[in-house]
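Hey forum,

I'm writing up a methods section and want to include a predicted complex as supplementary material. The small molecule is fe (ii) ion. I've pasted the protein sequence and the SMILES. Can someone with a working setup run it? I'll credit the forum in the acknowledgements.
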Amino acid sequence: MCKLNLSQGGRKVPLADLHIHLLPYVDDGSPDWETTEKMLKILAENDVKIAAPTPHVWEQNWQDIESRHRGLLKLTETAEKYGIKIVGAAEVWAIPDIPERWGKVLPLTYAGAGKYLLVEFDVAEMPLYTEWFLFQLKVRGVTPIIAHPERYFWVQRDERNLFRLLANGALLQVSADTFLHPETPAGKLALKLLQKGLVDFLASDWHRPDEPYPLTLAVQKLKSALNESEIERLVWTVPTSIVSGQSVQPAWQRSPLRSEIQAFTGEIESPPQKRRWWQFWTLW
Ligand SMILES: [Fe+2]
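Reply by user p_vandermeer:
Happy to help. Structure tokens for the complex are below, copy them as they are.
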């Protein structure tokens, strides 16, 4: 396993991984506790200090939502042996009736703090209710984090679909393994998003220990393209701010594409107003 050897003035930069399928028995990630322990050992070898297990919460298993976090206490205790802090979270499928299910959504935010929620979308098509969904989160004080936008065909086809989500207050989590496949559409888009300064943080989306841990490999690969402080922002500073419930300035606000994205903000926040009769009258 390739170890991260990134130094900041002589100290090693740790990793915080906020998208990982570490909890056993709940989804297509770790199948049992033995596998989870293997994963924890590898995470420790890779200097991961914080891990947020993010079991899938799909439409079909929403009724069984409480079981998504079954075992979280045991995982927290096991991970302590490896010097890893566990933060509860989930990867929630974007559904249109989220207001009705709000009581069940809150515990799925990072650390249950009601500040940040990891959401995933249909790969093939952008749902018609996407902006409405994000708005429902924002009005309840929750910042949506878009999981692996580089994989969505509707973003690959037209990046303005993503700009619209950013203008609606979303943050972007790009998955580390896409940087290991730069020839794919997802790999090309991930690199482009990074170069344009739109990525808020990286995470592994790691499912099982027979696959190499991708966050370390991606960081090694990106060292030639990014400076150390930028890498630290992506794998430690922003993720730790999220798990501690601090506010994060979206990366796009410092991007060269800022004004292009802001154009969507203007469209959304300032719809044309119909004039009332006295407004016409004052013009006369
Ligand atoms: Fe995932």
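Some notes you might quote in the supplement: Residues 151 and 186 are 5 Å apart (CA to CA). Residues 1-11, 277-284 have pLDDT under 50 and may be disordered.
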